[in-house]
Specification:
CATH architecture of one domain: 2-Layer Sandwich
Shape: elongated
Low-confidence stretches: none
Order of helices and strands: HHEEEHEHE
Strand content: 15-25%
Strand order of the largest sheet: 1-2-3-5-4
Largest sheet: 5 strands, antiparallel
CATH superfamily of one domain: HIT-like
Bound molecules: guanosine-5'-monophosphate, zinc ion
Distance between the termini: 54 Å
Number of helices: 4
Length: 136
């Protein structure tokens, strides 16, 4: 006990404080909260899709969960529906962006070796140009 507060209450407050601090400092949390403007293609209660600020192909957009998840290796069993929603809308938008006939690339970069620069899970969708394999 710390004065009249139980250790459970202190732990919960600490966790909530760190989530709030993270949302404040994370660029994609701020985009999801409409605090930073973006060219939004789709949003619902749990996800948002917006154009990449530095497109690497004629079509290049990102699909993010609105809740903060660092990367794909941090997802939990309870996030399966959320991930399905991201993939479902990613392919739907790719079609409306004109990628149905020739296809597109759907990419999740994860941590340093995966080339992740923004530590909030995001699915890249790139289309309307030929992309090669293996990546650099
Ligand atoms: P990563 O390298 O983490 O896989 O991808 C991060 C992506 O976010 C990059 O393609 C980068 O261009 C994009 N990005 C970074 N800052 C912003 C921003 O402020 N707005 C938008 N729309 N995209 C951003
Ligand atoms: Zn975030």
């Amino acid at each position: 006990m710390l004065g009249k507060f139980s250790s459970g209450a202190i732990n919960r407050a600490t966790t909530e404080f760190s989530i709030l601090t993270q949302m404040d400092s994370c660029l994609f949390c701020r985009i999801a909260n409409h605090e930073v403007p973006s060219d939004i293609l789709y949003e619902d209660d749990s996800i948002m899709a917006f154009r990449d600020i530095s497109p690497q192909a004629p079509v290049h957009f990102l699909v993010i969960p609105k809740k903060h998840i660092d990367n794909i290796m941090e997802i939990e069993e309870s996030d399966k529906e959320l991930l399905g929603n991201m993939l479902f809308h990613a392919q739907k938008i790719a079609k409306t962006e004109g990628c149905e006939e020739k296809g597109a690339r759907f990419v999740l970069n994860c941590k340093t070796d995966g080339g992740q620069t923004v530590n909030h899970l995001h699915l890249h969708v790139l289309g309307k140009r030929m992309l090669y394999w293996p990546p650099g």
